[in-house]
Amino acid sequence: MSDLSGLPPIPVASRRDVVADRLREAITSGQLLPGQKLTEVALAEQLGTSRAPVREALRQLEQEGLVVSYPYRGTEVLGVSQEEIEHVLVPIRISLEQYAFRKAAERLDADSVAELESFIAMMAAAAAAGDDSALADADVRFHDAVVSLSGQPHCLQIWRSIQPRVRAYFRRDAGHYADASVVAEQHRRLLAALRAGDEPELEAEVERHIRTHFAEPRGGGG
Fold first, then answer.
1. What Rg, from alpha-carbon coordinates, does the chain have?
2. What is the DSSP letter of 30?
């Protein structure tokens, strides 16, 4: 079982969001493993803060589906299983993003294209640097931007509710590519389909894109 020694202390002035960010990164990167117990006392001591922001951060992460609290057992890290990816996250994403991409295509302009291209550039740079976390972040930001561009508040609400767990499997998959530069290329094709605006082809490309994930992590993943 992993321990908490790798989590660096944070300034006393930092509050819930910083604690949540640290724990979220540790969970999605696999530093904290599924089933690992998290206690307010140990986390507060390790992170150099009081128990209150730790308690608030754990509640936030539970809402995001990254931890779960059991009566009399405390809080445990939740993993993202292949079954969940295949039968929950992928089907939800396909339905949600096919609709969001269609709506986004109607609102696409030069500024939004430039923003999406910037995220693709970030993916390419992260792949070149071997930075799996930055690669996953840029990937999430690309999809977040498209769903936001769609102008559909309920789509964005659903996306934001699953986004932390989607990022967890993006982060898992980022470490599995033999050549991570393919991620940027996948998103270039997705952007090209978005710009073309052909709905059947766009929906097909979105589904192809979302179904591109790995059946097994390459060791050490979340």
1. 18
2. T
Tell me the residue type at 125. A
Which residues pair with residue 75 across a beta bridge? 38, 69
User: Could you tell me if 201 and 192 are in contact, meaning their C-beta atoms sit under 8 angstroms apart?
Assistant: no
Nearest to 96 by CA among 155, 165, 143: 155
For residues 62 and 11, what is the distance between their CA atoms, to the nearest angstrom? 24
Dump the DSSP string for 31-73: SSPTT-EE-HHHHHHHHTS-HHHHHHHHHHHHHTTSEEEETTT
Q: What residue spans of the chain are helical by DSSP H?
A: 16-28, 40-47, 51-63, 82-84, 90-107, 110-129, 132-149, 153-174, 181-196, 199-210
Tokens of 144: 């977040």
Q: What is the pLDDT of residues 69-109, one digit of tens each?
A: 988 888 999 978 889 999 999 999 999 999 999 999 999 99
**Low-confidence stretches of the chain (pLDDT beneath 50):** 1, 12-13, 217-222
pTM, full prediction: 0.81
